[in-house]
Fold this sequence. Notes:
Layout: H1 2-42, E1 45-52, E2 55-57, E3 60-64, E4 69-75, E5 88-92, E6 97-101, E7 106-111, E8 117-122, E9 136-142
Parallel strand pairs: 1-4, 3-9
Antiparallel strand pairs: 1-2, 4-7, 5-6, 8-9
The structure holds copper (II) ion.
Amino acid sequence: MKKLRSSKPVLRKTTAGLWLGGLTVLALALGLFLKPYFRTAQSGQGAVIRISMAGWEPNTLYAKAGQPITVNMVNLDNQFHTDGGGWHNFVAEDLSVAERVGPNQSKTFTFTPNKPGEFLFYCDICCGGKDNPFMRGKLVVNG
Ligand SMILES: [Cu+2]
């Protein structure tokens, strides 16, 4: 009987250890999962936008006036495109933004729209550029 009693705390410790380990793993997993959201929250607003010969996806971005927005522009095209060699750019004249991204590359840039409104952005490297509706997108800046 004495042996049984002495083994009880050991069993309890193991159970507690398992719980603690499980909780730690859970917290770490949750932290990893939530990390991008927290980063976005810290640096204002964030958006991922994909560009290819087919156009922008999505073609509407949202921002808030006076708050920085970080755009991660992902280029889905390769260098074998005869039209611009697979390069694209993000041009928003009214916001003084012009960023280029190479084939199969991504580029992250940050800017701060200082006034509310709807602003045109486009790629002028390929496919007719600004005149092609597929190469056009809209940034909606809320006040
Ligand atoms: Cu383009």
